Amino acid sequence: MVRGRAPRELLLDENDNVPDGVATHFESERTWSLHRKLFFGQSHVEERGSALSPKLSECNSDSSRRQSKAEEPPVEPDTGLNHQFRLFHLRKRKLADEEEPEALTGDEVTAFDADPPHFRELTDRCLCISNILRSLSFIPGNDLHLANHHALLAILSRLLLYKHQHPPRQPRLQQKDYLAPELPSDTPDLTGGWWWWAPLLSLREDMLVILSNVAGALDLVTLPEDIIQRLLDGLLHWYVCPASSARDPFGGARDSLLSPQRLALECLSKLTVRESNVDLMLATPPVQRLQQAVGMLVEALGNRNDKVQREFALVLLHAFAKADEVAARWIGEQPLAVSLLLSFIEEAEQSALQIAHQHGVQALSENPELMGTTLDMLKRCASSLCFLSRIEENRKQLLKNEERFLNLCMSQILDQNVARSLAFVLLECGKGEVG
To answer: Got the DSSP string for 336-395?
Structure first.
């Protein structure tokens, strides 16, 4: 390359032909600075700039700073999209009835949409990198390395809710079509289209899959506070989000079961491996969202058609009931919580009886998974009932199912540890009646 010439001057020769081996579509520093501000925020760009050139701020005068601020477009207004990432704890204070249930979604890209080649190349590189990281996360042993990489976790946490926004709720007579909204006037539109929407969905799918693979090795206490908040806020939001984009599979695939809500549930259940993660999860505001999540977990516990999601919900309910009495009270307030927990044990008992009659008790003892679940799940379910029985407000709901508790305690096929836990529940309820 000839020194002293700008990259754009080397793009075309005298015959307007692109020379071989020369990269095209170079962007100016100002444009890439704008991209960095849109994604990372103003504070990140300032810190990075000060670290690379500490003497630059001393050389610039006050007049040059005012002039540069006047020339650049307003990237981070007080109500812009980036403001919700830097000060997302303020957004948590909004109640659910202040926002529309459906989130903003982009238009489908057509052949007539302007998709600049340099942006297409940029998105292709991002998708290639995310696919590589996603594939590496499936290899056993890599989860420990990925879970300890703070830079990767920072990117994952930012992409969870990036460009995901619920419009404010408006009266019915003034409702607008939010399926193809325009960007706010104070947010710059770089290309004039929604070219970034489809790549963003693919990136988010890859990020959620990576998180689901490494969640079991994550120790949130060792991470910076901003990463912890964004991770838990994003996972909890995707689980309780009522929008169709959260409940439908990625890309609209009918045969796929991967949806943001399902992956978020898997990530949250795997995070319960460490009790400190559960404490941080219950400390993530707002409280209304946690209560809504508990209600959805109880509802998922009654879904017999999806055993995987049912067991994930049971793992989370057990962790919540064990970690905090307030969470145990929330579970007990659900009308069907105790009944569904008992139904889970009763179904396993009936399956065990059928297997014992057909193949013998020895086959069941050698392979307990033949009854449709594992002994660990049964112990978690019975332990959850024990934690609920320690809350005085929950004992009234437990006593309504006293006969079902007695039948399970006297079962000859049920595991002794499970029966002992159920007997403890009756003992706790009996102490409350005597008192």
So the answer is: THHHHHHHHHHHHHHHHHHHHHHH-HHHHHH-GGGGSS-HHHHHHHHHHHHHHHTSGGGH
Whole-number Cα distances in Å, 66 to 31, 71, 72: 19, 9, 10
Over residues 299-325, the pLDDT tens digits come to 999 999 999 999 999 999 999 999 999
Q: For residue 235, how far is the Cα from the chain centroid?
A: 2
Contacts (Cβ under 8 Å, ≥6 apart) of 182: none
* Burial of 236 (C-beta count, 10 Å sphere; 0-12/13-18/19+): buried
Nearest-5° angle of CA 27, CA 8, CA 31? 15
- The residue behind tokens 């079961």 is 257
Residue of 431, 345, 432, 434 lying closest to 385 (CA atoms): 345
Q: From CA 53, how far away is CA 41, in angstroms rounded?
A: 19
Contact at 8 Å (CB) between 131 and 220? Answer: no
Task: Identify the burial level of 426 via C-beta atoms within 10 angstroms of its C-beta, where 0-12 means exposed, 13-18 middle and 19 or more buried.
Answer: middle
Strand partners of residue 99: 168
pTM check: above 0.85: no
AA identity, residue 334: Q
Can you tell me the distance from the alpha carbon of 217 to that of 231, in angstroms, rounded to the nearest whole number? 14
Q: What sign results for the dihedral spanned by CA atoms 341, 344, 347, 352?
A: negative
C-alpha distances (whole Å) from 252 to each of 38, 130, 246 are: 28, 20, 11
pLDDT in tens, 368-426: 888 889 999 999 999 999 999 999 999 999 999 999 999 999 998 999 999 999 999 99
Scanning the structure block, which residue is given the tokens 């408006």? 170
195-214: buried (b, 16+ CB within 10 Å) or exposed (e) per residue?
bbeebbbbbbbbbbbbbbbb
HSE of 78 in the Cβ direction (CA atoms, 13 Å)? 0
- With CA atoms as reference, report the closest residue to 398 among 347, 342, 354, 349: 342
- Alpha-carbon distance of 280 to 267, in angstroms, equals 14
